[in-house]
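In response to reviewer comment 3 from the previous cycle, which asked for concrete evidence that the modeling workflow produces usable outputs, we include below a single protein chain processed end to end. The sequence was submitted unchanged, and the resulting structure tokens are shown without manual editing.
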Amino acid sequence: MSDRADHRDRLRALEFDAFVAGAGGRLLHTATLLTGEPPHPPGAYPEAERLLRAALARTYAEWDRLHGGDPYDLARRELALRFAREPRRHQRPRGGLLERLTPVERLVLVLRMYEEVGEEQTAALLGLPGDRVRAVCARAVAALRSAGRGRSGTPAGGRTAGSGQGRRGAA
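The workflow returned the following structure tokens.
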């Protein structure tokens, strides 16, 4: 009986290792987006890695109970829930475009836009009404758009696109 249990444990570990090898990079990127840590250089995102390790540990603990379910969905849900439970830790991202967003805005935006989770599924996952998820996502997108406009305002040198026309016309 012990041989059978050992074989089952080895098989479980191999399946989980294959899952992490295939999905670990995307999950780490999701965790990095959530925590707002810059993705470069490698090893510079300890919060994202900590969040991912905790989510993967929970996924491994639930592995036998998946019964044909999607382990990626479970790992993503664990990432989102762990991030949502500790928002104070993630208040001050260290860079990037998402730094302007609140933790809830980051969470909703990453789930909806990067992970392509449906609005109703996001609402159910976070325990929020659908209209609240829609409003938070719209507010986050608007904040990113205004941040993008602020960064692309005036090109280097301080001149706008039309500012050189007067000189050309005068020459």
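Residues 153-171 have pLDDT under 50 and may be disordered. We consider this sufficient to address the reviewer's concern, and the full set will be provided in the supplementary archive.
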